[in-house]
């Protein structure tokens, strides 16, 4: 047989193909495909078998059939009959189909139908059909659920409306009931409120009466306090005026008693003295009164002014008497001098005649006489008396100032006022620095502005708000300047000149500040006079050292010598810097100039030196004022230095304890004298500020 014939006998070759498909044929094929597969387990030689007159397809695939074909060739002979025709897969069979014999061999592994692909398609179609059926069921359930939900919603709305109606009815009932209760409570509340209002009015009236009574008492206390303060102020003013009257009387008495020329006073000079006694008596009678009226304060001020005028008249009388007395003494002295000159001329003539006679007669020469000079002890005692007098004079001024301010400084009600004044003094003094002249002018102007009674910058306070305000500021300024010497200048010597220039400028404007400054200088350092205070047998060691300027602690510990010398050096350098500093007005006379440095050195030379302190302060004075002293006194200053070196320095060495101050002074004197020998000048001290610095 040919290949074509054999291919026609295969399963695919037996298939029928129809190129024209009708809807009926498609429906038929779809039904056939949708039918479940029919599986058989017979020999796979043929692709289909018959069993009980029905075609059974093989379970094996074509590849498996080819593999098993060689194995089953022998067994095929045992089959009694084979089908000569293939199964018609359209469902039709041929007439030659016969039932299989019973000796067909069974296989344990079932063959796969060649219609496996068709079966898979049918399975997928079936799954799609099941999915569609499930979707239909789900859609039906969803619609059923929506219908149930709508019904349930309707029921809920009905129930809600019923419940709302019921609640509305209940609320209406409760509202009516509550309204009745509210009306009842409102009536009761109105009644209680009215009762409370009545009670409150009663209590308020009682409380207002108490407040009015308290306010009245408060105003009464304030008025009493105001009157008491006014009385205290009036008493203070009265006391101050009385002290000034008494002080003026004491000064007048002292001047009158010390006047050596009372015989030259006119008879009219007795009247002011008697008037002053009457003024003092009247002032004393006013001080004995309890309450002081404003008229009495004014009367006391008038008495004070009257006493000043009387004092001025009396001083003029005394000065005129002194002038006349001195003129008379000068005339007498002149006459005596003329007599002495005449006598000296007569003696000279007599001596000349005697010499001539002696020369002529060749007799022995005569013996000449010399006039005596004051002894060193007398000079020393005179200097000491002068120093003590000056020290006591300034000490008296400071004591008088302290007494006049005692009531003001202890008054607790004036504490805030004193604090503002202290702040306005401390701020400009503490900020003095040698930056430029504008800085110094600003600080000086602030202090002058304060002492002029003007209002403090940024405050509604002035120094003239109280009678003691301006004196308090002056005393505080003087003390602050001296304290700058021991606190600042002692550590930084060159800072003395800026402070000294402001102090000199203020001294020029207010001479009484200069007196207070000297008084505080003497109080802090009595060697500035110079005064060497002797120890009294009744003094303790602490009291004596405190008078000398040492600091003594509360437990009695006395300040160390090196610290004491350092503080005294700072104070002396500031004092010396004031002597050589220029005020801002170039044409003005210095209120305490360089002549006081010469006086101090002259006094030191005529007094016995003290250990260490004399050498220390002499060195400070010479180093600060040496250049100015040389420019003013020229050769006289050189002689003074030579005297210090030759006569005074050995005395210092005999009393020296530490040795350092004397060695420093000796070196300074040697170097300075050598410069003078080489015709050189002394240099300015470190930090010195010239007069034109004010305008820098």
Summarize the entry for a quick read:
With 696 residues, the chain is an all-alpha fold.
What does the secondary structure layout of this molecule look like, with pairings?
Elements: H1 3-9, H2 23-34, E1 48-51, E2 54-57, H3 62-69, H4 116-258, H5 270-287, H6 294-361, H7 376-404, H8 406-410, H9 415-430, H10 437-451, H11 469-489, H12 496-509, H13 511-524, H14 541-548, H15 561-580, H16 595-605, H17 613-633, H18 635-655, H19 660-677
Antiparallel strand pairs: 1-2
Helix pairs in contact: 4-5, 4-6, 5-6, 7-13, 9-10, 9-11, 10-12, 11-12, 11-13, 11-15, 12-13, 12-15, 15-17, 16-17, 17-18, 17-19, 18-19
Shape: elongated
- The chain-level structural class is mainly alpha
**Largest sheet geometry:** 2 strands, antiparallel
Fraction of residues in helices?
Answer: 55-70%
**CATH level-1 class of one domain:** Mainly Alpha
Strand order of the largest sheet: 1-2
SSE order, as H and E? HHEEHHHHHHHHHHHHHHHHH
In the predicted model, the low-confidence regions spanning at least 5 consecutive residues are 39-62, 68-109, 355-373
CATH superfamily caption of one domain: GLE1-like
Query: Strand share of the residues?
Result: under 5%
């Amino acid at each position: 047989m040919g290949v074509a014939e054999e291919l026609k006998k295969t399963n695919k070759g037996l298939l029928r193909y129809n190129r024209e498909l009708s809807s009926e044929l498609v429906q038929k094929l779809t039904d056939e495909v949708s039918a479940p597969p029919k599986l058989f387990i017979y020999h796979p030689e043929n692709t289909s078998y018959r069993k009980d007159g029905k075609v059974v397809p093989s379970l094996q695939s074509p590849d498996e059939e080819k593999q098993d074909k060689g194995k089953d060739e022998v067994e095929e002979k045992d089959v009694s009959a084979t089908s000569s025709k293939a199964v018609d897969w359209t469902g039709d069979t041929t007439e030659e189909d016969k039932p299989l014999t019973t000796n067909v061999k069974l296989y344990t592994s079932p063959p796969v139908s060649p219609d496996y692909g068709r079966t898979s398609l049918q399975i997928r179609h079936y799954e799609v059909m099941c999915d569609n059926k499930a979707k239909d069921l789900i859609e039906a359930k969803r619609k059923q659920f929506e219908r149930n939900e709508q019904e349930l919603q309707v029921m809920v709305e009905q129930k809600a409306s019923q419940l709302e109606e019921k609640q509305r009815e209940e609320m209406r009932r409760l509202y009516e009931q509550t309204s009745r209760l509210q009306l009842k409570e409102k009536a009761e509340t109105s009644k209680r409120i009215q009762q409370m209002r009545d009670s409150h009015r009663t209590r308020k009236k009682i409380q207002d009466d108490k407040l009015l009574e308290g306010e009245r008492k408060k105003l009464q206390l304030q008025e009493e306090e105001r009157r008491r303060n006014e009385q205290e102020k009036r008493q203070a003013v009265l006391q101050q005026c009385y002290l000034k009257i008494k002080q003026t009387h004491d000064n007048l008495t002292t001047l009158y008693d010390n006047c050596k020329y009372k015989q030259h006073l006119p008879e009219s000079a007795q009247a002011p003295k008697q008037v002053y006694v009457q003024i003092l008596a009247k002032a004393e009678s006013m001080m004995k009164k309890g309450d002081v009226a404003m008229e009495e304060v004014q009367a006391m001020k008038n008495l004070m002014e009257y006493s000043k005028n009387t004092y001025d008249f009396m001083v003029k009388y005394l000065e005129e008497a002194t002038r006349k007395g001195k003129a008379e003494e000068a005339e007498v002295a002149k006459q005596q001098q003329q007599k002495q000159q005449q006598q000296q001329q007569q003696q000279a003539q007599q001596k000349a005649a005697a010499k001539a006679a002696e020369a002529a007669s060749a007799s022995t020469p005569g013996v000449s006489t010399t006039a005596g000079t004051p002894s060193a002890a007398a000079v020393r005692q005179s200097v000491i008396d002068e120093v003590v007098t000056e020290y006591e004079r300034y000490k008296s001024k400071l004591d008088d100032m302290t007494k006049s301010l005692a009531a003001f400084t202890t008054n607790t009600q004036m504490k805030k006022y004193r604090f503002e004044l202290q702040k306005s003094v401390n701020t400009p003094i503490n900020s003095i620095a040698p930056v430029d002249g504008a800085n110094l002018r600003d600080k000086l102007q602030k202090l002058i502005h304060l002492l002029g009674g003007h209002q403090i910058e940024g405050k509604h306070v002035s120094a003239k708000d109280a009678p003691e305000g301006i004196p308090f500021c002056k005393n505080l300024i003087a003390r602050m300047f001296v304290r700058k010497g021991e606190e600042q200048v002692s550590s930084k010597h060159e800072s003395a000149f800026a402070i000294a220039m402001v102090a000199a400028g203020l001294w020029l404007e207010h001479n009484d500040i200069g007196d207070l400054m000297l008084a505080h200088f003497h109080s802090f350092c009595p060697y500035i006079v110079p005064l060497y205070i002797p120890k009294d047998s009744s003094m303790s060691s602490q009291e004596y050292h405190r008078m000398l300027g040492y600091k003594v602690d509360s437990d009695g510990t006395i300040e160390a010598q090196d610290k004491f010398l350092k503080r005294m050096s700072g104070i002396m350098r500031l004092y010396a810097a004031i002597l050589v500093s220029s005020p801002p007005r170039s044409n003005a006379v210095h209120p305490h100039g360089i002549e006081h440095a010469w006086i101090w050195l002259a006094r030191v030379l005529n007094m016995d030196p003290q250990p260490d302190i004399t050498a220390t302060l002499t060195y400070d004075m010479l180093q600060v004022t040496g250049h100015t002293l040389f420019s003013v006194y020229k050769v006289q200053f050189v002689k003074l230095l030579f005297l210090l070196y030759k006569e005074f320095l050995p005395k210092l060495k005999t009393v020296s304890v530490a040795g350092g101050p004397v060695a420093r002074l000796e070196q300074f004197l040697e170097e300075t004298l050598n410069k003078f020998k080489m015709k050189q000048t002394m240099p300015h001290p470190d930090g010195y500020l010239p007069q034109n610095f004010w305008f820098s």
